[in-house]
Structure formats: structure tokens, C-alpha cells
Amino acid sequence: DTIKLLSESIPRALEPVHHFERTYSQYQEDLILNEIFESKGTTNKFMVDIGAGNGIWISNSLFFRERGWKCLMIDGEPGEIGEQIGVQKHWVTRENINNIFKDNNVPTEPDLLSLDMDGNDYHLLKEIFKEFKPRVVIAEINIFFENRDAYMEYNENYNHHKERIKGYGQSVAAAYRLGKENGYRTVSLVENTNIILVREDVI
Q: What is the DSSP string of 56-113?
């Protein structure tokens, strides 16, 4: 059925063209995303990076920040380095995420959203879609769920660094469905760790 074959039907990671460019992401996600924007264009060059860490190590946003993009970086534990370079310290929940966006003047349609929470990813993305429609979304997935449409039960206090349950986050099928329900097309999976969604009207 559709869900069972989903992971095989979605295109694999797009091959970055500019191999000479420096990548900061774990699996060249920044270069893949850049290829999308080179093809589809940008509107406001605004990015939100949720789960930004310290903003440098394994960063999906540093590549774009170096190129003049505005970026709201958020992490629950950014550390001293992160706070020094502007990563905002927030314990993000579905109850406060959209207010954090509004307090930081995030456009209703930012060019890019990166979501890597190792936990409530599905619930946060669902909440964000209620008020914001990023043109491109990259979100973490968890292959633990295999081909099931599944996700972690919401727990606003979940800390993956401490608890490390196997069934954290969301499955590729759940992220695919949530994107489709909100007008997004899944364009790529990256190393079975991230899913890239592009809004239908952008494609």
C-alpha cells in the first residue's frame, strides 16, 4: 500500500552540484537546500532553525547565514558559544512556538524552516503550519518507525539528551502525510535522517 512503499517512492537525496562549496550540515543538507533555492528562487531569505545547537556544529543554517540570510536560531541548550552568536535559549513547546516566531517578527512565509528537535518534531511542525507556511521545510525523521505512520506522543518535557527513547520524533510516513495535508510535496529524503518538503505553489 501507499504507506508501506512510501520510503521507496520518495526521491533520495538530491546530489549537490557545487561540491567545492563548504558544507556545515551533517549530510550536505545545506547544499541540497541551496540547490532548491537556486532553482526556485527566494523571497525574503529568512530562515528559522529550531534545534540549532550552538549554531556552528552540524548546522543547517550557517551556510545561509554566511550568505546574508536572516535567521532565527532556537535551542533549549545552546551553550555559551551558541548564546554568544545569537542562538536564543527556549524550551520549545507546541504552546509557545508560534508566539516565539511572532515575538521575533518571523514572516508568515519564511523561505526556510529547519526542524531538528529529537522529540516533539511532529507536534511542533503541525502547530507551526497553523499560522506559518515556510516555502521549504527540512525536518528530522526517525527510521525506528520504519514504514508506519507514527510519531512520539507529545511530551513537553522530553529531553532526548537525557531520556533517549527509540521512538522519538516522527516517521517519514507521518511527516509526508502532514506535509501533504498542508500543501507540501516531499521532494527528498537525506540519508534517512531528514525529509525535505517544498510548498506546492513553489514547485
A: STT-SSHHHHTTT-EEEEEES--HHHHHHTT-EE----TTTHHHHHHHTT--SS-SEE
3-state secondary structure of 7: helix
pLDDT digit string, tens, across residues 116-158: 999 999 999 999 999 999 999 999 999 999 989 999 999 999 9
158: part of which helix (H) or strand (E)? Answer: none
Q: Are 58 and 31 a contacting pair, CB within 8 Å?
A: no
Whole-number average pLDDT of the chain: 91
**Is the distance from CB of 89 to CB of 76 less than 8 angstroms?**
yes
Contact 30, 60 (CB under 8 A): yes
Q: Which helix (H) or strand (E) holds 130?
A: helix 121-131
Count other Cβ atoms within 10 Å, centred on residue 110: 24
Q: Is 35 helix (H, G, I), strand (E, B) or coil?
A: helix
With cell 504507506, the residue in question is 3
Q: Taking the chain, what is the end-to-end CA distance rounded to the nearest angstrom? A: 26
